[in-house]
Amino acid sequence: MNWWQYLGYDTEDRAYADGVTNTQIQNAKDEVYKQSVEINNTPSSIVGGPIISGFNDDAGRSELDRNYIAPEPSSSDKESVIPDNTETSSMYIIVQGPGGRYIEQQDAAGTYTDANVQAEIDRLNAQRDATLLANKSSGGGSGSGSGGGGGVYTPRTPNVDYTPVESTGLSTKEEAKLRFPYLDERLIDVYVQGFIDTGDSQLAILQMRSDSLMETVYPGIRKTDGTLRMTEQEYIVAKEFMELELRNYNLNPQVFGEDIVEAISGDVSPQEFSERLQTGYQNIVQNIPQVQEVYMREFNLDLNEESIFGMFVSPRLSTAVLDNQIRQSQIIAEAETALGSSVLTVAAARGLQQQGLSQAQARRGFQGASTILPGLSGGAERFGRGPISETEYVQATELGDQGIGQNIRRVESQITSASSAAAGAKQLRTGEVVGLEES
Questions:
Q1: Where are the domains of the chain?
Q2: Phi, psi at residue 102, to the nearest 5°?
Q3: pTM strictly above 0.70
Q4: Residue 133 has pLDDT above 70, yes or no
C-alpha cells in the first residue's frame, strides 16, 4: 500500500491536487510502514516486501529498520539456550522520543551497546536537524516518490483551542480612569506614561508615586524618607473625614486646609483628630463668655462661639483675625487724625480692610478727603447728586472704584462749568436763562 492509498486516493497526483500537507503525507507513510512491519513481522528491507513510497530509500530504511524488534524466540529455542553466568552489557534500540529527537531504549534484542549507542544517536539527530533545516530553507519537501520524506520524523501538531482577546475599545487613559477613579487627572497622565514605558501596571504605579506631583496633589502624604504614609485612597478618606468633623462644629473646612495637611504630615489619624476637636471644644465652651469679653475689651472684636473655637483649632486663624483687627484699628486712627473723632465706624473700617486698604492708603485717602471733600460734597448736593462720604472718596481714589470715581469726576466737571459761567445772565419771563455761556 502506498501513502496516498492510505489517505484514500487513487493516485499520488490526485492527493497533491487536493492539497495534502507534508504532515499528512509523513503520518500516512508512518502508518503504512508500521502495517508492513506488523504483516511481515520484519522490516521490508529484510523480507524483500513491497516498496513503500518514502521509506525504501537507503537513508530512511537504515534509520527505521534499526527500530525493528525481533520476535520472541519459541519455547523450543528457549529450552536449547544454555545459561551463561557471565556478565553481559546492556543492549539498546534507538527510537524517536518526544519532539522527534532520537533516544536510546533498553531492549535485550537491540543491536546497540553502551559503547556505540550514543555515537549513533548523535549521528541520527545531526542528520535529522540538517534535513529539517533544509526543508525550512526550501519551503518544504516535495513529498513525492522515494525522495519524499526521507524517513524524517514530523511531530504531529496538537489542535489548540484559541480564543482571541476582544478589545475593550477604550484608550489606555480611559481604562486607567475606570481602574483608578480616585486619582487626580494629572496623576492619571503620569500613570499612563509609566505604563507605556514599562508595559507593567505595577511598575507604572510605582513610577507615578515617585513623581514629585504626588506631593502637590496629596500634600503631606510623603514622609521625609520619601516613602508614602498611606495610599491615595487612604489619604482622600482621611482628609474627607477631618473635613466632616470640622463641619460638625459649624466650621468651614476650606479655612482649615493647611491645618488638615499639618495633621496628616504629623501622622495624626482621623480618629485622633476627632478626639482633639472634641476635647478642645469641651474646654473652650466652658469659658466662652470670658474669652468673648477679652476680645471685646482688648480688640473691640465681637466674636461668636464658632469663631472662638475656630481660633483655638487653628493658630493661623487666630493670627489672621488679630491682624485684620489691628489693620481696622489703623484705618480708624488715620481717619480720625485727618477728619476728627468718630468719623469712621468700625463696620466701615472693616469694609475697607476687607477690600485691601493698607494704613498708608488710608492716610493718603483721608487726608485728601479732608481737603477736597467739603467743596466736592457741597457741589454734589447743589447739583442734585447727593453727598459723597469719606469712605466713598477713599474707595474711588485709593481702591479704584470706577463707579464712585465717575460720579466724582462729573461733580467736579459741573463745579468747574458753573464757576466759569459768564456774568450778566438773566432769566426771561418764560423761565429761560440767557447770557450764560459755559466754557
A1: 3-70+89-138, 343-419
A2: -80, 140
A3: no
A4: yes
